[in-house]
């Protein structure tokens, strides 16, 4: 019997547009999903640019206005890979039109918007996800299995660092990722949102937070992103940076564990240094994105004298997702995290369930982001709502 088709409309064709397009295209190579993804249409404002992207990435058609995509009755799923200030408007319009939605992170500009987005998808009964792709790294999935099985015992500490350095040059321009009206926050929503997602996934909900944030370079020349994380200065004009360059916070988890989080775009030498360590009563795990297939594991059951962190290459059939790709030891990369997430999304659509992380996760994440920001302003601890 022919599989049900899910006709996708992707909004955005640059960094995330490319990651998601590649994922839809490659998905059938590796996974036998319950439904068939169809790359129906892609949207971008620049006609020549979006047409070229559609041809290169394998989309059947293109549009230059996202509203037109939502009106089309040959689209079942809207994939939002554009700037943060458009997430809410597009997601709500998509849900109201009865379309499933996947949205890039951070879900929204603030908690009020995230709440409206969650309400819209719930009311419409559509399937929804938010693209926290690091949850889909086999080594992280495996760490979750170890924690859930009790192998690490009672969890006492979650400690994360997310370090990048691509805006350290004071001449790096004031691109959209540094303008509050377009992105909501800086490093906080861009990087810390990922660390918060991993903490919630691996350790659970938090009960209180206290944070600090700062902007090291307060004025920059105007300019635009030019591909990947590169940018070009567009003239002589200078503008004020109104988002954070760096953020740190501490939290208490509901299970009593301590959380210590740091995220910065001023971590010289770190290109995408997303890492964490978890310590439990019986063992610990460590992970770093720049070596993403490896999980470091310490278990106290090891013989005395032989104890120590061991490196596990999470490429065996037994490791989540890994068996879908290559034989053991044949590593996967960043792009595969997106294939794994759209695999879950397609099965979610087949079963009419919203796999995690979904808009509930995105909303709760935004509650924490906003609380850390408020705490940094008020220089005080903030109690989080009970979830
Ligand atoms: C840039 O900081 C960026 O591309 C983020 O936007 C992504 O979410 C992160 O995964 C990698 O870095």
From TrEMBL:
Keywords: Oxidoreductase
Domain of life (superkingdom): Bacteria
Listed GO MF terms: nucleotide binding; oxidoreductase activity
Location of the Gfo/Idh/MocA-like oxidoreductase N-terminal domain: 6-131
Pfam families in alphabetical order: GFO_IDH_MocA (PF01408), GFO_IDH_MocA_C3 (PF22725)
Domain GFO/IDH/MocA-like oxidoreductase as annotated: residue spans: 141-286
UniProt entry tagged with the keyword Oxidoreductase: yes
Protein name: Gfo/Idh/MocA family oxidoreductase
């Amino acid at each position: 019997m022919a599989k049900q088709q899910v006709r996708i409309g992707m909004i955005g064709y640059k960094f995330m547009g490319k990651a998601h397009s590649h994922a839809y295209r490659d998905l059938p190579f590796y996974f036998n999903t319950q439904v068939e993804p169809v790359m129906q249409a892609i949207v971008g404002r620049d006609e020549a640019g979006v047409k070229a992207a559609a041809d290169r990435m394998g989309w059947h058609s293109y549009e230059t206005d996202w509203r037109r995509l939502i009106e089309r009755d040959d689209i079942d799923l809207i994939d939002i890979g554009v700037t943060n200030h458009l997430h809410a408007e597009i997601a709500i319009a998509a849900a109201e039109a009865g379309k499933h939605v996947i949205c890039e992170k951070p879900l929204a500009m603030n908690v009020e918007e995230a709440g409206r987005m969650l309400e819209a998808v719930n009311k419409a009964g559509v399937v929804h996800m938010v693209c926290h792709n690091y949850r889909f790294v086999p080594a992280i999935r495996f760490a979750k299995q170890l924690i859930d099985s009790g192998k690490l015992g009672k969890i006492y500490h979650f400690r994360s660092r997310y370090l990048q350095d691509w805006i350290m040059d004071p001449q790096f321009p004031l691109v959209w990722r540094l303008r509050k009206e377009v992105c909501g926050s800086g490093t906080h929503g861009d990087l810390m949102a990922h660390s918060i997602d991993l903490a919630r996934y691996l350790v659970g909900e938090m009960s209180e937070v206290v944070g600090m944030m700062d902007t090291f370079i307060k004025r920059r020349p105007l300019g635009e992103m030019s591909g990947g994380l590169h940018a070009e200065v567009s003239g002589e004009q200078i503008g004020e940076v109104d988002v954070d360059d760096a953020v740190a916070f501490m939290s208490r988890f509901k299970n009593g564990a301590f959380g210590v989080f740091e995220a910065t775009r001023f971590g010289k030498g770190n290109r995408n240094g997303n890492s964490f360590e978890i310590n439990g009563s019986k063992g610990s795990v460590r992970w770093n994105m720049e070596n993403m297939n490896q999980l470091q594991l310490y278990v106290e059951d090891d013989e005395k004298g032989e104890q120590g962190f061991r490196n596990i290459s999470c490429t065996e059939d037994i490791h989540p997702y890994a068996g879908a790709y290559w034989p053991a030891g044949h590593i996967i990369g960043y792009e595969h995290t997106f294939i794994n997430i759209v695999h879950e999304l397609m099965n979610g659509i087949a079963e009419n369930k919203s796999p995690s992380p979904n808009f509930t996760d995105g909303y709760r994440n935004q509650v924490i982001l906003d609380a850390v920001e408020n705490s940094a302003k008020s220089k005080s601890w903030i109690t989080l709502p009970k979830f």
